[in-house]
Specification:
Structural class: mainly alpha
Oligomer: single chain
Number of helices: 4
Strand content: under 5%
Number of strands: 2
Helix content: 55-70%
Order of helices and strands: HEEHHH
Shape: globular
Number of domains: 2
Radius of gyration: 17 Å
């Protein structure tokens, strides 16, 4: 077995443990290897990285905006789930990025509010 195959198997196992369904039709491929997470999960991970960068450079979004970004991703999932509109991997990626940004900023606001509460007490 090639080293690349062993690495891919390890990454696929990690993606599975993260909770991704890893459906082949909803995943991207690179050089013949399926991504270890689906297109939406890939977007969420990228969105979380983008949000961390935004926090570091002090560009923040408020809680309502964060929730709206999460709702956009949820709406894409819901419309597909109830078979109103079939999503595609590019849309899953972009709505996943928005959801990842939104999720990270929701966590950010929760942590900041807990810290403020602890300092005020």
């Amino acid at each position: 077995m090639k080293r690349a195959d062993k690495v891919w198997i390890g990454l696929m196992d990690f993606g599975n443990r993260m909770g991704c369904h890893q459906m082949e039709s909803r995943s991207f491929f690179f050089r013949g290897y399926q991504f270890p997470v689906c297109a939406r999960c890939t977007g969420v991970i990228l969105g979380e990285i983008i949000a961390l960068f935004l926090i570091i450079v002090n560009l923040k979004i408020n809680l309502i905006q964060s929730i709206v970004l999460l709702l956009i991703m949820g709406l894409d999932w819901f419309l597909q789930h109830v078979k109103i509109a079939e999503s595609n991997n590019i849309r899953r990626l972009f709505t996943g990025i928005l959801g990842g940004i939104g999720l990270t900023f929701v966590y950010y606001h929760i942590v900041i509010n807990i810290l403020i509460f602890l300092v005020i007490r």
